[in-house]
Amino acid sequence: MSSMEVYLFRHGKTICNEKRLYCGKTDISLSDRGIEELNYLKSRINYPKCDKYFTSGAARANETFNIIYKDEAYEELSGFFEYDFGDFEMKSYEDLKEDKLYINWIMDEIGEVRCPNGESKNQYKNRIKEEFISFIKYIKKNEYKSVLLISHGGTIGSILECFYDDSKNFYSWQPKCGEGYKLKIEFQEQNFTIKEVLKIKS
Questions:
Q1: Can you give the pTM of this predicted structure?
Q2: Whole-angstrom Cα distance, residue 195 to residue 27?
Q3: φ/ψ of residue 5, rounded to 5
Q4: 190 φ, ψ to 5°?
């Protein structure tokens, strides 16, 4: 049996985090506050040195990586991009609360209702699930012992809900901006298991 360490960190704050707007596919940059907070977190969190680094390819993820790791190289994996909220992008609950399509989406308990021109909850989780399986296979093939991914709250939450503990929904698993988790992954032949999850926070 072999094992590896996988670190999952959420990008720094954007104006959408501050204003509580739905922001998934919209490729926005970090806010001034987000940059300031990340520079503060660098003095509080011992961000790990790893064999390989990855981001979702979003500007906010890439900018977060460059603040924390400066000149280190990283690879972009677009399959880890945040939820596609479609027509709900860049809008708030207050903007949408009387929209019947929005109400249908937030009330959907089985995950089949799509955001108009976007994803359903199940489509999103399946995308993240498939990407994470491919990610782990790639890491194992290249014999990396430690890797780090900077992505999104929904992405991290979905990974932990799908592969570790589905008694908590993905909202419960989402870390604060700039924070994340250390995962210990063990292999049994062609399968893998997340054996341990440790929260990394300031």
A1: 0.96
A2: 33
A3: -110, 130
A4: -95, 0
